[in-house]
Design goal:
six-stranded mixed sheet, 11 strands, alpha/beta, D-Maltodextrin-Binding Protein, domain 2, 2 domains
């Protein structure tokens, strides 16, 4: 009798495992290397809601913050290249090996592009105390006052730090870099008149309240929430184009067929009017496009940030 019970139990266990394996295979995990609630996380969740039905899979978001996004990225780099673990991040990961020689990540070798979901630019934000209503007026004012104006960032090697040094190089201005612990802290000091300039994508509420002035955005497109604010190129500084973007990547070695399937699903999601509207509400311009387009963007960004760092002799102690 005991032998029969053991046989039945073994059969039931085998059956449960047989059902469990396909269920696990049907899960797509998207790792977000930032805490829940930020723009990158919210964009990833909006995308996940559309990918699941298209792919016929259960899509889960796995937040792995820490180490300036290093922890989450490492999880994906080391994951099996089977198309079931993806990374959703913004392009700040490209800066990591530039600012930290200990980071051995090579974006074009350790990760496989899937597609860009959306792009956005940083706002060129100035204090109301600065006598400039346009970008060209600010540049003229900064040139007339070398070393007297300051810009803030969330620290050496941050996206705003790169934007500030690139701006200085293109305009021939001498601005003092003031590092903060966060972009929010820098923006608060611009609003308080302590700081002259910041590069920030979250300044809309301050501008709407009249606490700061938004002179331009660094992206190649206008911010969907700020249709009257020109791009820097439109405002006369044609070379000052710094597009930030967010998108999906997979571990290197993921089969091309799996990447193509994921890219097709991402582009279908981008075409969804509801998703496009949600992204625009967050200040993101819907993108989409081919895998090669994302590959080229990564190569272009790697070259640009390395050039900015070299030309400005940026140090990241």
């Amino acid at each position: 009798m005991n032998k029969r019970i053991r046989s039945i139990a073994a059969a039931l266990l085998a059956a449960s495992l047989a059902f469990a394996a396909p269920a696990q295979d049907n899960v797509l995990k998207i790792v977000v290397p930032y805490p829940a609630g930020g723009v990158t996380d919210l964009a990833a969740r909006a995308l996940a809601d559309r990918l699941g039905p298209t792919l016929g899979q259960t899509v889960i978001i796995d937040n792995r913050p820490g180490g300036g996004s290093r922890i989450g990225i490492d999880v994906v780099v080391k994951a099996p290249a089977d198309g079931r673990t993806l990374l959703f991040t913004n392009n700040s990961f490209i800066i990591l090996p530039v600012v930290d020689p200990a980071v051995k990540l090579e974006a074009d070798k350790h990760l496989a592009p899937v597609g860009i979901l959306a792009s956005y630019g940083l706002g060129v934000v100035v204090s109301n105390a600065v006598p400039a209503a346009t970008l060209q007026e600010f540049i003229a004012h900064a040139r007339a006052n070398p070393g007297k104006l300051s810009y803030g960032s969330s620290g050496p090697g941050s996206g705003a730090n790169f934007a500030g040094e690139y701006f200085k190089a293109l305009t021939g201005t001498s601005l003092v870099h003031v590092p903060y612990k966060s972009t929010a802290a820098a923006l608060n000091d611009v609003a308080g008149g302590v700081l002259d300039l910041a590069f920030d994508a979250t300044a809309k509420a301050y501008a709407d309240a009249g606490k700061v002035r938004l002179l331009a955005v660094t992206g190649s497109q206008r911010d969907p929430r700020l249709p009257k604010v020109p791009t820097a190129a439109e405002a006369g500084l044609k070379a000052f184009v710094l597009d930030s973007w967010a998108g999906l990547l997979a571990p290197a070695g993921t089969p091309p067929a799996a990447l193509a399937r994921l890219n097709e699903a991402l582009n279908k999601a981008v075409a969804d009017p509801a998703l496009r509207s949600r992204l625009q509400e967050m200040g993101l311009a819907p993108e989409g496009g081919s895998i090669e387009r994302m590959s080229q963007q990564i190569r272009d960004d790697m070259a640009l940030y390395r050039r900015i760092a070299a030309d400005a002799k940026m140090r990241f102690e």
